[in-house]
Diguanylate cyclase (Paraburkholderia sabiae), 378 residues
Amino acid sequence: MTNYPETFSLPQGRLATWLLYPGRDTPPEIRVALVATLFGTLPIFFGGVFNTIAVAWVLAYRHPSPPFRFWLISEVLVCAVRLVILIVAHRRARQGRPTPTDIYLLLAPLWGATVGYGALISATSGDWVAATLSFLSAAAMVGGICFRNFAAPRLVAIMIFLSLGPCCVGAVLSGERVLLLTLVQIPFYLFAMSVAARKLNVMLISTMEAERENDRRARHDGLTGLLNRAGFFHAATHELVGAARAGGKTPLFYIDLDGFKAVNDAYGHEFGDRLLVQVATRLRQLAGANALVARMGGDEFVIAGEVSNAREPDAFASRAIGEIERPFQLAANVTVHVGASIGVAAVTDDANTIDKIVAVADAAMYEVKRQKKSMAVA
């Protein structure tokens, strides 16, 4: 999935959550990515701000009356508050802190309402120049609203309605028959742009879901569903090293099956794969849902992270061996027995690179296996 350098918080309030609803249920990480698209960048924001404030300022100068002055003040205040919220949100997102997403989302319809208010008072002022400028400003806003906020189709529809809807009211109140054409144009425009935002939203979510699935496949073992080597190193770098630097001390277990080759040779690769799947299931159940469990390749596995009942590493390793030594039913008439050799290494701040920790555990595992062979020879 596309990676954003900043992470923005999901909305917490009902209204903001409703505005952000993408149209179908989506995973949390995709929803977070959708939120990031709404914040955009400062240059895009300044383009919209310049348009609305410039038009309000020109028409307030042309018509120095309370309604137009109120419009200008409203535009400046709303845009200024949105700018502050935008800057604060980007700063907090870079720091990994909660962002004021609710306020930012709720200010967006208010901005649309100020634009619509300006169009309304301009249309009823009797000044064709004012009406033309304000209507053009509102129409120009719609394109940006749609293509900047299509991650939230409901927000797009409401902002367009608040921006262009007052144009229809103003057209009726102006007494100019020619402006009544807007009663046909604007509803059609509202419908067309809302549909466009919905379709763009569907395309965006579908792309994100495809990227997410590709990422999952790239980091998970296709046979067992566990993390693969690349997926483990990626996850462990963030979770284990962070925990170690915070003062934690987490064991890492490197597991190699004893007797797997004999099963493969006797029954074939299909039964060997069935054995690996069952081993993976037992290890996942033993380690717990929050642990990192990976197949490193062949018949080698790793367990690390928040492992259930692993405060005593030796005791956990004994339980893991006991689980693996229980018989495996691979078919109605095929039951096999295998063993396991386990090496343990501590994830500490002194050895804070995952490849070093894995290498230590791997070496410990091979030492256990060598000792078993020596004992067997003796």
